[in-house]
Amino acid sequence: MPLPEITPPPEGTPPPEGTPPPEGTPAKFTEAAPWQAQNAGENKTNPRLFRFRTPDELSNYAMEMEDKAGKIPEGSILLPGEKATDEEKAAFFTAYGVPNAVDGYKKIDTGLDPSVDFTEREFSSFANMALENKYKPEQVEAYQKWYTESVKERLAENDKIKKANTEKMTTDYKAKWGEKYKANVDAMTKATEYFGGTEFKTFLNISGLGNFPKVVDFLVEKGLTLTDDSWLEGGAGKKDEEPKDQIHYKSMEGM
């Protein structure tokens, strides 16, 4: 006798009442297990405990959680969840090491020249940015150290370039001036000291203008007019050795 053809139910049709769930499916209970009545207060009917049908199930779960907690390194802090309150987030960042105000960040002594180091205003702005982005003080210090080393490397590279330019310029001017080289260098030095002193000389070195041919030629030209050392001491000098372009008044002679 042929068996009747069985037509499968449409997809999505719930199983007949009483059909057991697939193996491994967690049970969902809607009422407390009898043992839960032994608890105190709200725990007698707390739905979070419904899934533990016996005291042993709850005990095993508690010990499993304890084992997992024991694997967390001492001193660890948990990240706040999406629904964490502002107070919980603040507590987390405090535990993480973020200061409560910008004065928790300190400007280190970099040893850099003030012209390339952080100004107080720049560091204040940096500290505010760090606080807003929850930087730890050691991170701010690490950045300052990195910045310092970067600047020192850049300055060292600039010094190499400047030295190479100076050596080339020396070679070029020795060829150009010949026997007058030393006299012209002395004249340039004299003019530099006369017109600006140490501050002017430092400016020429830092800016690199001291290697600029037009500046060199200008200083040599002016220095050659300062043939009397009395000019460097504030004296009047000799009439025939006065600097070029200086106005001389006859009426001031003898004063």
Provide the fold topology:
Blueprint: H1 55-70, H2 86-96, H3 120-132, H4 137-177, H5 181-195, H6 197-207, H7 213-223
Helix pairs in contact: 5-6, 5-7
Describe the 3D structure:
- This protein is mainly α and 255 residues long.
- The protein has a domain at 95-150.
- It contains 7 helices and no strands.
- The protein has helices spanning 55-70, 86-96, 120-132, 137-177, 181-195, 197-207, 213-223.
- Helix 5 packs across helix 6 (197-207) and helix 5 crosses helix 7 (213-223).
- The chain is rod-shaped, with a radius of gyration of 43 Å.
- The relative contact order is 0.04.
Mean pLDDT: 80
Shape: rod-shaped
Terminal Cα span: 148 Å
**Largest beta-sheet details:** none
Order of helices and strands: HHHHHHH
Structural class determined from secondary elements: mainly alpha
Q: What's the total helix number?
A: 7
SS strand fraction? under 5%
- What oligomeric state do the depicted chains represent? single chain
Uncertain residue ranges: 234-255
**How many strands in all?**
0
Instruction: Summarize the amount of helix as a percent range.
Output: 40-55%
Radius of gyration using CA atoms only: 43 Å
